[in-house]
Amino acid sequence: MEIKSNKRNETFRRQELVVETESEKNPGYAEVKKLIAKEIKKPEENVDILNVNGKFGRNVFVTRAYVYDSKDDLEKMSVLRLSKKQKKEIAEAKMKASPTSSEVETEKDAEIGNNSETEEKEEVEEKE
Question: Which pLDDT belongs to residue 15?
């Protein structure tokens, strides 16, 4: 494995790498991620592989990767790379997962209503 380019991007708190690897077959993202993490001496969870490119008939593969300072930085940047459609789908999933304030209020009103009805029944029974 040979690092062709290693640029530091302080704005996004990451290293931007272009790495050239030799392999008999096309290396997978997980394999390249392990190699880069080992070479840079950072945890695998901080490495983001953009692409692995090879040319027909050659055993040399060029990989573009970002190595972030922390996992939080990686998560922040991965959210920024989402398309509008993907962001909308995530927002809709969150809305379905958590109850809305009107649903919570309706449930509270129902509980309060049930409590007042039971209290009224108890009072009627006590009078008799």
Answer: 95
On whether residue 111 sits in a domain, the answer given is: yes
**For the chain, how many structural domains are there in total?**
2
56 plus 102 within the same structural domain: no
Tokens representing residue 43 in the block: 């945890």
State the Cα–Cα distance between residues 119 and 49, nearest whole angstrom.
Answer: 64
- Whole-Å CA distances, 12 to 6, 88, 90, 110: 15, 24, 23, 49
Distance of CA 102 to the CA centre of its chain: 29
What CATH number does the domain containing 32 carry? 3.30.70.3370
Of 63, 27, 64, 67, nearest to 44 by C-alpha is 67
Average pLDDT over the chain reads 83
| The pLDDT value given to residue 81 | 82
